[in-house]
Please model this.
Amino acid sequence: MLESLKVALVCDWLTVFAGAERVVLELHELFPNAPIYTTLYNAENCPQFKNADVRESKLRFIPGARHFHRLLLPWMPKAFESMDLDEYDLVISSCHSTSKGILTSPNTLHICYCHSPIRYVWDQSHAYQAQFKSFSPFRFLFTPLLNKLRLWDRLAAERVDDYIANSSYVGERIQKYYGRKSTVIPPPVDLFKFTSTSGERDDYYLAVGRLIPYKRFDLIVDACKAAGKKLKVVGVGPSLKELKKRGNENIEFLGKISDEELKAVYQKAKALIFPQLEDFGIVPLEAMACGTPVIAYKKGGALETVTEGVSGLFFEEQTVESLVKALHRFEKHSWDPTEVSKSIEQFSSARFKSELLHHIEKAWKQHTQSHSQPA
Model:
């Protein structure tokens, strides 16, 4: 049914390869001939798309844009609205920012795989502003800017014909902020790349991700320091310098490492610590695929992937005290790496592609039926 359609893919940006970009890669594998429209593309950081037809917006002409893409957020709505997608039958957007705002023809079906309504515009707006204290002198400028973007985002949300949410948590937020229903299809983890091992575990906890304030690496560092636990931190980002100052001799910063190195670090860790409120969270799935249990904050997407007592446990509050208590509880429990990895088998790439294709085919059938009925 879908083979005869002219398809385009759209995403916010391709400047780093993380969870949202993995979904774009899955979409690209499903529709290899579909061009990928985006604001900015860093080929060096995203070599997975070297054979794809990636079409960047005019923002690419701004010096340094691919390295400081978030600073260009005010211009991204216009960048997406200027993209001509009238020739396509089916457009699939992978969106956590503004890509859902594309303009399509009346006969085009626009399906949005929504990772989240824009966090820094909606429910986490105040938290984001508080965390980036260096911008506080300019709050009088970006507060009205966020208000304007919030209004645009609500309007742009109406342009989508069909929503897919990456978790029930995100589905609830789509309903609240956009007034739209959605179908939940969780994103995949690469179960061929990340695998469990029967080897001995080392005596360290693990934190993985981009080092930015909302991911709360500060909480992990402070808790491990207070509890006297060894910690390895994988990732880079603007918070790195501050985190190093907070650490001690038990806390090691590994920076950016290869996938093979990451797999080995996962396989040797006692547990992954995941303290942030995340819409879904692919990092815990990678850890669990390697047989590594997860200590997670008891909110958001982690509730849909971590099974208490089987693949990990939760802590109630984003405080050092609450996390330290969770570390002590964790060490009183025995964990079976095989059971941990089995607990997330339903998040395979094959399952994701199958569910997604089934949903798209159903949506396309409904779309054609509605357009064939007489007015």
About this structure: The longest helix spans residues 349-372. The chain has a mean pLDDT of 91. The chain has two domains: 7-188+348-372, 205-346.
